[in-house]
Design a protein that fits this description.
The chain is of the alpha/beta class. The chain has a domain of 161 residues: Rossmann fold (3-Layer(aba) Sandwich). It has seven helices and 13 strands. The strands form four sheets. Strands 5-2-1-6-7-9-8 form a seven-stranded mixed sheet, sandwiched between helices. A two-stranded antiparallel sheet has the order 3-4. It has a two-stranded parallel sheet with strand order 10-13. A hairpin with a 2-residue loop joins strand 3 and strand 4. The radius of gyration is 18 Å and the shape is globular. About 20% of the residues have low confidence.
Length: 243
């Protein structure tokens, strides 16, 4: 039998793809550029296309859609910095709504594409969108979270219980906090953290995400690695929606 098809939008290095491939899916990723950093590259078939130009009818054969639109702007405005607060304040002050629409356009595109794909297929194609906690003030409350990975859309009713190790990394990525009790579950805290302490910019002032330009090779590589979905989480979603 032909394997089910997963379409991964804003795929980067394929954080979603690894879990879906492990569960027997075919995966096609869409991104505006190819990400190759040393030995790291997208593990599935890759289509180079701006997601804003994708019409959902292109994806009507998909059995599941998973998308992780860029979240650096949301994370930045959640930081306790005066410039970050000013930026958020300016967007909210725009009475035309144009600034807010520009901020959320990639997130909104995910649901437009799902609607168009489902209409073309004559059936609902499930969609799970991943982003950060800082997106919630702008796009609405997430349906579930695993560490710093927040999920919107068709999130399954039953999700894995998180497991918190007794030794937890904190924002510097070098120190440890041993005061947290040892919870039990199926996923580890280390697998639930986006980069340094769960923040794109981290508490470490020397973080690569706080140096250089957004188009620099080192920062782009770090961003792509941070964005990768924990494999236990992606595999769970893949198992739930396996036809």
């Amino acid at each position: 039998m032909k394997p089910p098809l997963c379409i991964e939008g804003f795929c980067g290095l394929g954080g979603w793809a690894e879990g879906f491939l492990a569960e027997g899916w075919d995966v096609v990723g869409f991104d505006i550029e190819q990400h190759v950093y040393g030995e790291h590259k997208y593990p599935g078939q890759l289509v180079i296309q701006d997601m804003l130009t994708v019409h959902g009818s292109q994806l009507k054969d998909a059995d599941c859609l998973v998308m992780s639109p860029p979240c650096q702007e949301f994370s930045y405005m959640a930081m306790p910095w005066s410039l970050a607060k000013a930026k958020a304040r300016d967007i909210r002050a725009d009475e035309t709504g144009a600034a807010r629409k520009e901020l959320t356009k990639l997130f909104d595109a995910c649901f437009r594409i799902q609607r168009e794909a489902s209409e073309a297929a004559g059936r609902k194609i499930p969609l799970v969108v991943e982003n950060v906690k800082g997106a919630q003030p702008w796009v609405g409350r997430a349906r579930w979270s695993h560490g710093s990975f927040f999920l919107w859309g068709d999130v399954p009713a039953l999700m894995p219980i998180q497991k918190y190790h007794q030794r937890l990394k904190i924002s510097s990525g070098e120190q440890w906090n041993t005061s947290r009790p040892n919870f039990t579950g199926t996923l580890g805290w280390d697998e639930a953290v986006k980069g340094e302490g769960g923040s794109w910019f981290g508490g470490n002032k020397d973080s690569i995400m706080r140096r250089g330009t957004s188009k620099g090779a080192a920062r782009k590589a770090a961003s792509a690695m941070i964005a990768k979905i924990p494999e236990p989480l992606s595999r769970h979603i893949a198992r739930v929606y396996l036809p």
